[in-house]
Amino acid sequence: MLSTTNQHRRKEASSHILDKNGTPNWYHSRITYFGILIGIFGILIGIYAVYGNIWEDFYAVSAAMSGNADYKSATSIYDFTANSIRGEEVPLSKYEGHVCLIVNVASKCGLTATNYKELNELYDEYAESKGLRILAFPCNQFNGQEPGNSEEICSFAERQKVKFDLFEKIDVNGDKTHPLWSYLKKEQGGLLGNFIKWNFTKFIVNKEGKVVERHGPNVDPHKLKSSLEKYF
User: Fold this and answer.
1) I need a surface site. Which of 14, 82, 155, 213 has the fewest CB within 10 A?
2) CATH top-level class for 77-229?
């Protein structure tokens, strides 16, 4: 009698472990859970496919509206905007048909006096006669040599009798690099890396808005005359 009871108990316990085909019941549970996970994963992929595209479109539209499309897809400097030193948005398409010299400037650098003086001289010589435009972008990334705000930078520029176009202070390297400068560096890489090495790095842009030359801080503006004259 006791033996029969034990057999019955073992059979009952086995029925909880195995199905009628002898397959462990936990196997079915795992398949069920796995199926649920696959279903959830599929739903997430679907959501991403729909809303991911929406967000991509949103960012693309936002970039286009700001006038600073992804620098990797830009075809000229005319695809960008920048804020003037007075805070006004300037579409760089206004420079279409002009040879441009774009430079990062600083007011407290050892190169400041020579560069500001010679940039003014280039402007005097070529702005009216050849249509040269000079775009200067203050930057404080090199030993903190442009620490002032826009008003202070304006005041300094006035004392230097600056005649060329001055823009708001920006970053030219790092995560916050202005898109225009990312584009400039992509189009004309530098020695030992594309990053800007110091104040007064200069880019020459032709009349079609293409970046055609890059010159380091050691090249004074007056030495650029022969280069500029190739593109007038």
Assistant:
1) 14
2) alpha beta
